Amino acid sequence: MSAKALTPQEFFTRLNKDTMDLVAEFYAPQAHFQDPVVNVTGADAIRAHYAHQYAGLESIKWDFAPLTVQGERNVMPWTMTLKHPGLNGGEEFAVEGISVMDIRDGKVFFHRDYFDMGAFVYERVPLLRSLIHFIKGRMTDETQGKRPDRR
Fold first, then answer.
1. I want to staple 77 with a disulfide (CB 3.0 to 4.6 A). Which of 65, 119, 133, 146 is the partner?
2. For all residues of the chain together, what is the average pLDDT?
């Protein structure tokens, strides 16, 4: 008798630096994973990516919107709330995103995450935050018909 396959919500809720063995339960051996940071193939490479990402976390919590399933395609909107000493002054913050996963025989063979990398990292580092806010301000001024001073 085979064990019941992990749902995407169960996987992410249970995953932490001490439960990386869940990756082999959730992903097919030759699964492909892509997000704004990495583009890797193979459950071992995915595990290494997660291990690196989770290593410095002080806390992480997931809130999931309803999962949409059509055939093998699973689409899951989420909000990730995390605390990391190197981001956002060590204070907790949230990032919204969406995961697109293709699942066959209880295993993910394709997984792509979409989220705003600026909201996740760039705006959480003081020097980069200032630069990103400056650029956004310039872009907003131009799209609202205000001409920035081009000295």
1. 65
2. 85
Residue holding tokens 């792509």? 112
Question: Whose structure tokens read 């097919």?
Answer: 28
Measured distance CA(142)–CA(110) in Å, rounded: 39
CB 6 within 8 A of CB 22: yes
Domains of the chain and any CATH numbers: 8-120 (3.10.450.50)
- 80 touches 62 (CB < 8 A): yes
Q: Considering the entire predicted model, what is its pTM?
A: 0.77
For 99-114, what is each residue's pLDDT tens digit? 999 999 999 999 999 9
What is the rounded CA–CA span in Å between residue 111 and residue 11? Answer: 13
Q: Check residue 106 and give left, alpha or beta (phi > 0: left; psi -120 to 50: alpha).
A: left
With CA atoms as reference, report the closest residue to 113 among 7, 54, 33: 33
Segments in the chain forming alpha helices (H)? 8-14, 22-26, 43-55, 117-120, 126-143
